Amino acid sequence: MHCLPSDDRAIRAGTRLIYVRWTGLLALLVLEVVALTIRFDTKTLEGGPLWLEGFFGLLPVGFDVVAVGAAVVLLVQWPQLRGALQCLPDRLQNHPWSRYLFVHLAGLAGLALLSGPLMEGRPRSAVSVVALTICWVGLGLLTLLAWLNCFLPHRQWLPLLRRWPWILPAGTAAGLGMLGAGRLARLLWKPLGVSTLWLVRFILKLYSEEVVYQPAEGIIGTRAFDVEIAPECSGYEGMGLMLVLIGAFLLISRRTLRLPRALWLLPLGCLLAYLANAVRIAALILLGTHVSEEIALGGFHSRAGVLLFLAVGFGLIGLSLRSSWFSAADRLGEPDIDSTASEAYLCPFMALVGITLVTGAFSSGYDPLYPLGLIVTCGLLWRYRRYYDDLCWTFAPRAVAIGVTVFALWIALEPWKSGKTPPTAPVPLAGAGAVAWVIARALGSVFVTPLVEELAFRGYLTRRLMAADFKSVPQGTFSWPSFLVSSSLFGILHDRWIAGIIAGMFYALALYGRRKLSDAVLAHATTNALIAAHVLASGKWSLWT
Questions:
Q1: Are 285 and 222 in contact (CB under 8 A)?
Q2: Pairing status of strand 219-222 against strand 226-228
Q3: pLDDT (0 to 100) of residue 120
Q4: What is the CA radius of gyration of the chain?
Q5: 49 falls in which pLDDT band (50, 70, 90)?
Q6: Whose CA is closest to 507, among 393, 406, 408?
Q7: How far is CA 428 from the centre of its chain?
Q8: How much is the mean pLDDT over the chain?
Q9: Are 200 and 238 in contact (CB under 8 A)?
Q10: How would residue 400 be classed by pLDDT, with cut points 50, 70 and 90?
């Protein structure tokens, strides 16, 4: 593939428009998959033909394999793919992508219409089931192919496949490998849980002789307070998240680390995450025994795991950067990069998260010290204000529209809870104290949180993934690894991680539109303002806790 001669400025503008379009198409596909998954529950197929249940049972597996394989190939092969994509503005000037988008949306509508009678209508005859299934698969393939053609016309796919014939087999192998690793990890839940119980018992024995230990039932504690450890609490999730965090760190800092020696950080991080989880469970039991069962099962149970994970993960990263055994910065002889700029973008976010986690871990129902985190965070924002020179505050209707869209999606993805018990406010205070807390919570949600999170994720991380000196990367510069990794980490740090990842993608779209970080902040603030209004109007305080 050879690039046709063209004006450099026109090429850059055309490439930017294509990247923005592709980002929107990717976000559209994610929304469609989530919406279809929420709307149609394949459990209604129970009692129907076994082959139909097996077919729909394999679809999520295939989706996981394709998604993981595509992500791995994109991350590994991006430098070469980026060179090929730079040639596309000239090739796609007359690409009728909007027509393919219309076909895609029409196919999606037909797919949704057939999904109802196929999954929920329970057709009586075998012939009707087979006919509906064939039509459903055909519409699904049409919808997917039309979506792919929105990216590139089918004539452009063949040259790419000829250039990298291994890309599809390698992606499929990577997806199957990750799927197999996930299945193997599930089998390890039970032995991992047994070892966790034994380690917690060992820790408790150091402080009390009255230890309740029933490994068969997963129960551990003292005579005054015991808990049942679920498989998820065995350390499996923490170890998986630690692999993601350390893996992202290795990817970002690969040029300043001693590879392959730095790969030892992966098993070391897993081990530390496992030990930290055992310490968390032991601390929870001791807190419930000697202080308060309500606090132990409330704020401490929900916050301590995240707090220890962040402490262990970022502590290990910090030590590795200072260790000559892992770091190769001294050997490279590269010029020093002003670390104060990184601190300016990260410290307010880390302060708000850290203080909120600590104060929330030792509270029940609501965090009375939440305003303390706001005060410290605002102080840091004021201290580093001169480093935020890329913030240009102008009103952007498009950013507001994105914020409204994210709010609608966030509420749509909120778990529905049945029951006649009316929601109660998490503020046991009365009068002026309750009003002051609610005001502080609303102001922090609308003004402080969007600013510090966008500084950290869209202002710092999206550019840090492209260059060590992130300030040298123009604001709003697009790359697929930067977009996907930053949006995924943004979502993982939220309790509702699916909604968080989608929100991160939309806020990135707000940034890429005019290349202004303030647009992402405005979109984020709009979402949080609508959520705050929804909480105050409906009393659904779970959106704030």
A1: yes
A2: antiparallel
A3: 64
A4: 26
A5: low
A6: 406
A7: 32
A8: 77
A9: no
A10: very high
Lowest mean per-residue pLDDT among 131-140, 245-254, 299-308, 478-487: 299-308
**CA 493 – CA 373 distance, rounded (Å):** 18
DSSP state of 124: S
* Angle, vertex CA 160, rays to CA 159 and CA 162, nearest 5: 65
Contacts with 158 (C-beta within 8 Å, 6 or more apart), sequence order: none
- Per the model's pLDDT, the better-predicted residue between 251 and 77 turns out to be 251
Q: Are 273 and 240 in contact (CB under 8 A)?
A: no
pTM of this structure: 0.61
Q: How far apart are CA 68 and CA 157, in angstroms?
A: 20
**Token pair for 358:** 């600590």
Residue 517, pLDDT above cutoff 90: yes
Half-sphere exposure of 240 (CA within 13 A, CB side): 15
- The DSSP 8-state label assigned to residue 426 in this structure reads S
Measured at the CA of 126, the angle between CA 123 and CA 129, to 5 degrees, comes to: 50
**CA pair distance 279, 270, nearest whole angstrom:** 14
Alpha carbons 498 and 157: distance in angstroms, whole number = 30
Beta-carbon contacts of 448 under 8 Å, excluding residues fewer than 6 positions away, are: 352, 374, 377, 378, 381
